[in-house]
Amino acid sequence: MVNKDGKQERAGRIDVKLRLMHGDEIAMGPGKADLLDAIGRTGSISAAARAMGMSYRRAWLLVDVMNNSFGVPLVRSAAGGSQGGGAGVTEMGREVLTRYRAMQAAAAQAAADHAAALVQLLRCDN
């Protein structure tokens, strides 16, 4: 990649991805955090899944792992029917999401100098 000054740039970046493990399961990670955000915005697991381009089944399985990994469910859902269904992020879910996002930001900040140095070591011939 050539920059505006005609110099070769290194096309690279470092993504810091944190996963909170509960046994062999990922209790919280970047995808699950994004799913919680989407459920909070849409009020629905199925709408959140559609917005993220995943199947309802996949979204439900991720919610199930999250709910079973913490002492209190992160997502509550109501079955459909004449009143309609829906889902919402619980108070515990909001706390977990807030803490996870803060942890992501802190990790990215802590890694920034090392990440920049590593990107400079990438090959320029891409």
TrEMBL record:
Residues 35-81 form the HTH lysR-type domain. Gene3D superfamilies: Winged helix-like DNA-binding domain superfamily/Winged helix DNA-binding domain. Pfam families: HTH_1. SUPFAM superfamilies: Winged helix' DNA-binding domain (SSF46785). InterPro entries: LysR_HTH_N (IPR000847), Molybdate_resp_trans_reg (IPR051815), WH-like_DNA-bd_sf (IPR036388), WH_DNA-bd_sf (IPR036390). This is LysR family transcriptional regulator. The lineage of its organism: Bacteria, Pseudomonadati, Pseudomonadota, Betaproteobacteria, Burkholderiales.
